[in-house]
Write a structure and sequence with these properties.
This protein has about 150 residues and is mainly beta. The protein has 2 domains: about 60 residues, 2,3-Dihydroxybiphenyl 1,2-Dioxygenase, domain 1 (Roll), CATH 3.10.180.10; about 55 residues, 2,3-Dihydroxybiphenyl 1,2-Dioxygenase, domain 1. It is built from 2 helices and 8 strands. It has a 4-stranded mixed beta sheet, covered by helices on one side. A 4-stranded mixed beta sheet has the order 5-8-7-6, with helices on one face. β2 and β3 form a beta hairpin. The chain is elongated, with a radius of gyration of 17 Å.
Amino acid sequence: MQSIPIHYERPALFDLGDALPFRFVYTGIRVRDMDESIRFYTQVLGMTLVERMTTAPTKGEVATLRSPGSEQELELNFYEEGSSFWAPYSNGEDLDHLAFEVENLVATVGDLRRKGVEIIVEPYSIGDWSESYIRDPNGIWIELLDK
């Protein structure tokens, strides 16, 4: 799959009066199997593994990924049972979805189907763009959109 060139300039933090200045940095999701999740996001969705490490204080493992041309990061988190961060896995119920832009939605969905990826919602159009939804190995919905 071809990467989409995206020009990105990091904006300055906004002055929101009494609110603290902030900038969204990444989305962290909890995964059941770190290796399977890394394989899905790198080999199927074309992301790059930026960093993978264990975190002794949380008894966890963290992997950071990024799509080519994007500054947004996806953080995969796995915690051992017994960690204060551990909780029974709940099929993505607290996260609505992640979104990835693609160049040719119909062709991309066909390619993902051939790779065994579960297609949740077939491609459909809304105004000037089309979208579809797939599911990652952890049950998290991923929106694919073609503008």
